[in-house]
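This protein record is not my work; I was only asked to verify it. Take the sequence as given and treat only the tokens as open to question. I have pasted the whole thing underneath without changing anything:
***
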Amino acid sequence: MSKFSFAPPDLQVDFARKLNTLRPKYLQQALAETINGLDITKIDSELAKFVPGSDLSVMAAAGLRAELIFAVPSILQENPELIGYYRLLLGYSQKQFYGRDSGFGVGHFKSMEEKGRIGATAFADIEDMCEALCAAASQLLRGLKDFDLVLPH
């Protein structure tokens, strides 16, 4: 028997289970289904408004649609729960993101993720939210510049 003893990876197992149940609701499948019902030219114009052109070029060069990592109002208005997709993509826990004391002051968006509803305050702030999410996604993209962004099929 080893002199070292590690706690079982229960947290990781629970996370994997939760991720599996959230997949159709929050992850790329939900994003793809939402986009299918939207006007792609509107999404493109919103991406042009919120995302630096250089980031759009990086995504296009990799053969990827920019809304995979960049949130825009039309997508979040069509499927408010997708705010959870972008939050998870950027690596923020719910507590870190929405928390009263430790959050970013965006607690009024939590009902989008949890209930699929956009309240009046969140609706009024949706462009500011997308601007902030896109800025964070730009940092993520810059941080991944040394990685191959082409996804396996």
